[in-house]
Design a protein that fits this description.
α2 packs across α3 and α4 packs parallel to α5. The chain is built from ten helices and 13 strands. By secondary structure, the chain is an alpha/beta fold. The strands form two sheets. A seven-stranded parallel beta sheet has the order 1-3-2-4-5-6-12, with helices on both faces. The protein has a six-stranded mixed beta sheet with strand order 8-7-9-10-11-13, with helices on both faces.
Length: 349
């Protein structure tokens, strides 16, 4: 697999959150025995890049699986700090010209760039994760019902809190992250209306640093802990790792996001305090798109993943969580209600 590193690497302040060796390797590498016979596919990472223990890493897992199972050659490209749409246009154009198909933009920030580049390469499929605002005959919009998984997290938080105060930390206040907030708050209140939910966003657009700075997440979590929160759910990319660190060190419960963060090597020191994670099957979406192209039937238009098909879910990797039978029962009941349509989860606060 060829990997092109970001121009300006995002630093991590805490040594405990250092990226794994695979996330900070050489500028480029090629998988042993890989060639172009099986096709080529590429992903362009969102803010924070690979090694965020969350969203981007989930996308990488899908590309890695495609390399192993579909015999394709994968390429990754990192973002540069503070980049704009022209940088993304240049990146996507270069990937398409190199013969990659599909070319996948990891995150809604790629929407304007994909809208500009896709018409220039009509035979190339472009994947756009987490956005439906830009469409086209060769664009696949890979989206998720984040609010549904977040609702289940809210149910769990309301059941385990002892202080009757829980927290939500959003990386950047965008419509996408507001979906996480909406589902979480609704799940909490539907379970126990007396539980207080503290909500905080790290940055406001156009500043997207709230997705890439662990120190911001750590400080926000510490503030919520000081205010009495004993369960904190962060939807903040790499910054969420800082939130998990602060929450775990306080021996309170953290709820992860996107990937099953209990199983992330970079967060191993804090895993016992990661109650659960709201997972998005980003890896499956990436793999499915690559496979559809290789099969000659490329996905296009909106491709939605929800609770009913495990496109979003609440992980159960932590044994401490699975032993909470009353919590698991409540979560299962809520999941059944959502999939049956008796519980309507809000997509905005």
């Amino acid at each position: 697999m060829r990997r092109i590193t970001r121009i300006a690497t995002v630093g991590i302040a805490s040594a405990a959150l250092a990226l794994s060796a695979t996330a900070c390797g050489s500028e480029s590498s090629t998988s042993a025995g890989s060639d172009d016979k099986g096709g080529k596919a590429a992903i362009a990472y969102d803010i924070g890049g690979r090694g965020d223990q969350s969203f981007n890493d989930a996308a990488y897992a899908g590309l890695e699986k495609a390399e192993k199972e579909l015999d394709i050659k994968g390429t990754e490209q990192e973002p540069s700090e503070g980049e704009g749409d022209p940088d993304k246009v240049q990146r996507l154009t270069a990937l398409a010209r190199a013969g990659n198909n599909p070319v996948i933009g990891v995150g809604f920030a790629y929407a304007p760039a994909i809208a500009e580049v896709a018409p220039k390469f009509p035979k190339t499929t472009f994947g756009l994760i987490d956005d439906t605002s830009k469409t086209g005959p060769n664009i696949a919009n890979l989206v998720f019902n984040e609010e549904q998984g977040s609702y289940l997290a809210g149910v769990a938080a309301a059941k385990v809190t002892k202080s009757k105060t829980v927290g939500f930390i959003g990386g950047v206040e965008t419509p996408l992250i507001k979906k996480f907030e909406a589902g979480f708050v609704q799940g909490v209140k539907d379970t126990d209306k007396n539980v207080n939910v503290k909500v905080q966003y790290l940055t406001q657009p156009p500043d997207f640093g709230g997705f890439s700075k662990p120190d911001l997440g750590k400080a926000a979590a510490q503030g919520q802990l000081d205010a009495g929160a004993d369960v904190i759910y962060a939807a903040a990319g790499l910054a969420g790792a800082g939130s998990i660190e602060a929450t775990a060190k306080a021996k309170k419960w953290a709820i992860g996001v996107d990937s099953d963060q209990y199983n992330q090597k970079g967060l191993a020191a804090y895993k016992d305090q990661i109650l659960t994670s709201v997972t998005k099957n980003v890896s499956g979406a990436v793999f499915n798109l690559i496979k559809s192209v290789k099969d000659g039937k490329p996905q296009t238009g909106e491709v939605r993943y929800g609770l009913q098909d495990d496109g979003v879910a609440l992980s159960r990797s932590n044994p401490a969580f699975t032993k909470m039978t009353d919590v698991i029962t409540a979560v299962d009941k809520a999941k059944a209600g959502i999939t049956a349509g008796t519980i309507k989860v809000q997509t905005a606060p």
